[in-house]
Design goal:
Elements: E1 8-12, E2 29-33, H1 43-49, E3 54-57, H2 60-69, E4 75-77, E5 100-105, E6 110-113, E7 116-119, H3 125-135, E8 140-146, E9 154-158, E10 161-165, H4 170-177, E11 182-185, H5 194-200, E12 206-208, H6 215-218, E13 230-236, E14 239-245, H7 248-260, H8 269-280, H9 282-285, H10 287-299
Parallel strand pairs: 1-2, 2-3, 3-4, 5-8, 5-11, 8-10, 11-12
Antiparallel strand pairs: 6-7, 9-10, 13-14
């Protein structure tokens, strides 16, 4: 009845907002389920994580970053997964006049740094928009779906680009997914990267940066890889780290490839859905290690 009386406390999130008292009585077990999107995490994260009995991470990439940053408590990998009970969203072959549709989702499309427009978050929506315009694909469009972080919602189209800056329901996202040919996500780094896996579980060809968390599930899908050209030195969450760099030319080449093979892509959809169901349904990939971890820590 009272959270403080639970035998096991699991804090899901990063240590930024973590306050151990009063939710962590010394006689109770305490676990952090957290992520690392770059190769290092801040020292104050490490100090908080080292107060726990265990640390859980959603990918080998995240677990290694935590250990390399100095986390000394046991780190266990408990992957995320998707619910694959729903059927794939199968898109029919293109009819005459129907646009080839590329989709991207993120929190923030763009920001201004030193007066110049740049990507608003690490997921590369602004870079993808530039690449899409340069690719100049015939009869195509780009859907950019992001959130009204500054409090202003809008939904409008300028030429072949559809800007959707608002919160949407699951049903509304399904409607967008139903008209999407490919999903492209040139992220700099992810602890896991749920969005591309959710698209793949609907049968949508999803191309995320083949690095960090997404690499661990992308290897199970028969799709072309969006390989980074290198790793950049960055400061992420205040810590010096390295993150992936995707060249604009690689995005242009990927979109041109998908456009040229647009009549063949629908045939992949059932294969993508089957792979997600067989290998990345949460009942198979998340539940067993989670239950084993709970039993181990509570029986210790």
């Amino acid at each position: 009845d009272e959270p403080s009386q639970a035998d096991l406390h699991v804090h899901v999130g990063t240590p930024d907002s973590f306050r151990p008292a009063p939710l962590h009585p010394p006689e109770r077990k305490f676990v952090f389920y957290t992520v690392a999107e770059a190769t290092r995490v801040p020292a104050y994260w490490v100090r908080a994580l080292n107060q726990c009995d265990e640390v859980w991470a959603p990918s080998q990439f995240a677990a290694q970053a935590l250990v390399h940053s100095g986390v000394s408590r046991p780190v266990q990998v408990i992957p995320l997964g998707v619910d694959c009970r729903s059927p794939a969203i199968l898109r029919p072959h293109h009819s005459d006049g129907e646009p080839f549709t590329v989709m991207w989702q993120g929190s923030r499309l763009m920001a201004y740094r030193d007066g110049q427009p740049s990507d608003g978050d690490r997921k590369g929506g602004f870079q993808l928009e530039r690449a899409f315009r340069r690719a100049n694909l015939p009869n195509s469009r780009l859907i950019l779906k992001y959130l009204p972080i500054e409090g202003s919602s809008y939904d409008f189209r300028v030429g072949p680009v559809w800007y959707i800056c608002k919160s949407m329901s699951v049903v509304e996202i399904d409607e967008l997914d139903a008209v999407t040919d490919v999903f492209i996500w040139p992220t700099m780094g992810e602890g896991f990267g749920m969005t591309p896996l959710e698209k793949l579980a609907k049968g949508i060809p999803a191309f995320a940066t083949y690095w960090s968390g997404p690499r661990e599930y992308l290897k199970d899908f028969p799709l072309r890889r969006l390989t980074p050209s290198g790793l950049d030195h960055v400061r992420f969450n205040g810590a010096p780290a390295r993150m992936a760099r995707i060249d604009e030319a690689a995005l242009i080449e990927l979109m041109k490839y998908c456009h040229e093979h647009r009549q063949e892509l629908p045939a992949l959809r059932s294969t993508l859905f089957d792979s997600a169901r067989d290998k990345w349904d949460y009942r198979h990939v998340l539940r067993p290690p989670l239950l084993a971890a709970i039993k181990r820590i509570c029986d210790h």
